[in-house]
Structure to design on (328 residues):
């Protein structure tokens, strides 16, 4: 489904590209050139997005034990770089024509093509973003945002051409291109920043929060402590590992069954493939103060209070003790 949607998007982007350059050829408008250059990026990025989705779907192998999903972050970063390059060219071109009175004609045709492309890109961008969020695909989200950006650009083109057509203020054509060049630059920086963060395994606060909320919602008394929780994204897939403290008097079979249940519970946090690794820790006497196992046969201290699991203490690589939390 993802590859089919991207293939349709790529095909439509090629047709839009041809239409925009035809409109620029007829009019000579700098603003229409801006729109056409943006479409070149759409086509190139769409082709690479299609390939990255295909590559990310390949199964794990000996050389890629965590799969190929991170290619999606590289794809979104490349799209950001392409946007920056286009923004730089548009800025230079528009600056050169800002104070010149170049001939502009056939603006009605240019407005019609830009308005049509804006509608098409807006629709495709919406569906790509929605599908990308559903499938947790950074490539589809980045491509959808880029198409949505192109739709906004086309609307700005229509507005600039309409003002130029009605007032004959030729400088508006270049001024609109400069304005959108700055907007494109900001969008490109954001895409690159997000891509680099993901490639460096920076924690996604939203996903991390969802994992914590899911764990606490399904928490059992036997899960005495949870720490060293790490969530890594590999494209649309997740890799989660943590340390889970269980009663030390349990035999190995019981521990194995509990971890299996814990992994099964955690695997339903998001509708995507999730790989989970759990390291089992035995409880200590210091855990008794917050252990909620009511029939514990080896309890050394009375229960005092429950420790609330949050994004800070779950990420720490140490067991939680009340004296640590209450330390000034």
């Amino acid at each position: 489904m993802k590859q089919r949607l991207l293939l349709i998007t790529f095909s439509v982007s090629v047709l839009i590209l041809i239409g925009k350059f035809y409109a620029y050829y007829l009019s000579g408008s700098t603003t229409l050139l801006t729109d056409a250059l943006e479409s070149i990026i759409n086509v190139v990025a769409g082709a690479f997005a299609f390939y990255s989705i295909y590559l990310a779907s390949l199964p794990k192998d000996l050389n890629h034990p965590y799969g190929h999903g991170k290619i999606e972050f590289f794809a979104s970063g490349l799209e950001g770089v392409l946007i920056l390059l286009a923004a730089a060219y548009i800025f230079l071109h528009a600056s050169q024509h800002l104070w010149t009175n170049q001939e502009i004609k056939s603006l009605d045709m240019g407005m019609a093509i830009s308005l049509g492309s804006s509608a098409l890109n807006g629709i495709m961008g919406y569906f790509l973003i929605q599908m990308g969020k559903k499938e947790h695909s950074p490539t589809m989200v980045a491509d959808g945002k880029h198409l949505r950006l192109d739709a906004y650009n086309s609307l700005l083109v229509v507005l600039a051409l309409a003002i130029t057509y009605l007032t004959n203020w030729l400088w508006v054509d270049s001024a609109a291109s400069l304005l959108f060049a700055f907007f494109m630059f900001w969008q490109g920086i954001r895409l690159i920043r997000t891509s680099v963060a993901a490639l460096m395994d920076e924690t996604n606060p939203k996903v991390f929060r969802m994992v914590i909320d899911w764990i606490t919602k399904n928490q059992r008394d036997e899960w005495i402590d949870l720490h060293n929780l790490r969530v890594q994204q590999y494209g649309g897939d997740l890799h989660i590992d943590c340390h889970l403290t269980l009663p030390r008097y349990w035999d190995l079979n019981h521990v194995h069954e509990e971890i299996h249940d814990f992994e099964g519970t955690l695997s339903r946090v998001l509708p995507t493939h999730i790989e989970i690794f759990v390291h089992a820790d035995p409880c200590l006497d210091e855990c008794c103060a917050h252990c909620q196992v009511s029939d514990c046969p080896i309890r050394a201290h009375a229960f005092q209070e429950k420790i609330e699991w949050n994004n800070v203490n779950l990420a720490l690589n140490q067991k939680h003790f009340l004296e640590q939390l209450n330390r000034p």
Observations:
- The chain has a mean pLDDT of 82.
- The CA atoms of residues 239 and 275 lie 5 Å apart.
